[in-house]
Specification:
With 134 residues, the protein is mainly beta. It has one domain. It contains no helices and 9 strands. The strands form 3 sheets. The protein has a 5-stranded parallel β-sheet, with no helix packed on it. A two-stranded parallel ribbon has the order 4-7. The chain has a two-stranded parallel sheet with strand order 5-8. It is globular and about 35 Å long.
Length: 134
Amino acid sequence: MGREVDLTGADLVGTNFVSANVPDSIVDSPTFTSSIVQKARFGTHEGDSFAGASFAGVDLSGAQLGRSESTLDLTGADFTGVTVVQTYFANVDLTGSTFAELKFGSSMYIGPDVTCPDGASSTEGKYGAAACRL
């Protein structure tokens, strides 16, 4: 079992999180701007929350946001200018989140258990950004 680390107030801009499991316990409302988070997993623990987090300009290729057991809180998160290539959103609440200037690659998966930025559920039968009307 890993140790809890408190990085509240730490500057995480530009940090390499490639293939990391990133629990919310590391910092409140983190800023991952310009960080490398490819293949990282966010929300791996029960009750994790990244509400208000900034992922602006981050390459989320292969990243997994959410978990199957409980809803990951991403309300008000900033995803402006993120790269989404094989990026997976499952069981997350994106209410009030910003998704401007997305950079698409081959795919972006939004599961049926996602609350979209407009507060409505993802649209069944739609895929990628269309599932959340982005």
